[in-house]
Amino acid sequence: MWTYEKRLQFPVKITQTCPKTARLIITQFGGPDGELAASMRYLSQRYTMPCKRLGGLLTDIGTEELGHLEMICAMVYQLTKNLTPEQAKTEGFDAYYVDHTTALWPQAAGGIPYNACEFQSKGDAITDLHEDLAAEQKARTVYENLLRIIDNPEVREPLRFLREREIVHYQRFGEALEHVKSSLDSKNFYYFNPEFDKAMSLSGRSL
Question: What is the CATH number that goes with domain 19-202?
Fold first, then answer.
């Protein structure tokens, strides 16, 4: 069970309406490398990690990603808070406006709706941690792309914070991967398993 603290992990205080920027940032809500996919990925993978230490790490980072999702949603909300239909038309927000007005709904910047196929949960620690490492790097790249094209300092500051957290998560997952690899032996299915390979050879199958 989670304890909910009623504050954002980093303050979001955007005073200018800008639906064009909101349409870009919303990709980190429901896009392929966004915070919704990240939180669901880690909170799903944690159950099949081979030790409590790794399960706890995924729980901690998955929970933090939920906080990042809140930040992104707060940014989109504030960027569209006083939106007029005319602004929606002239700034490319009209298609979203027709379906959702200014309510929050998970989609990518290109308009593609969120899909659970955006993340994977395989039950193999090596496989899952490699996916997690890649996910953090992809999210970092998206935040850097947003920072390259957004000038508003009220938007850039929380984006910088989120980028930094992706880097920290990448480092933690790297440490977790090394821990898993250092703990492997021939009785462990992960990474290598001579008995499994031998059984497959005897059965006439090849890998």
Answer: 1.20.1260.10
Closest by CA position to 132, among listed 181, 173, 175, 176: 173
What average pLDDT does this structure show over 59-70?
98
Tokens 């996910």, residue? 135
Question: What CA–CA distance (Å, rounded) separates 143 from 33?
Answer: 10
User: Could you give the C-alpha distances from 3 to 12, 37, 51, 56, 63, in angstroms and in order?
Assistant: 21, 21, 24, 16, 10
Residue 90's alpha-carbon distances to 21, 57, 60, 94, 175, in angstroms, are 13, 45, 42, 8, 48
pLDDT tens per residue, range 8-63:
999 999 999 999 999 999 999 999 999 999 999 999 999 999 889 999 999 999 99
Which of 170, 99, 166, 111 is closest to 139 using CA atoms? Answer: 166
> Do 15 and 154 form a contact (C-beta atoms < 8 A)?
yes
- Closest of 27, 49, 52, 171 to residue 105, by C-alpha: 27
Element spanning 137, H or E: helix 125-149
Q: Do 120 and 131 meet the contact criterion of CB atoms below 8 Å apart?
A: yes
What are the residue boundaries of the structural domains of the chain, listed by start?
19-202
| DSSP secondary structure code for residue 48 in this structure | G
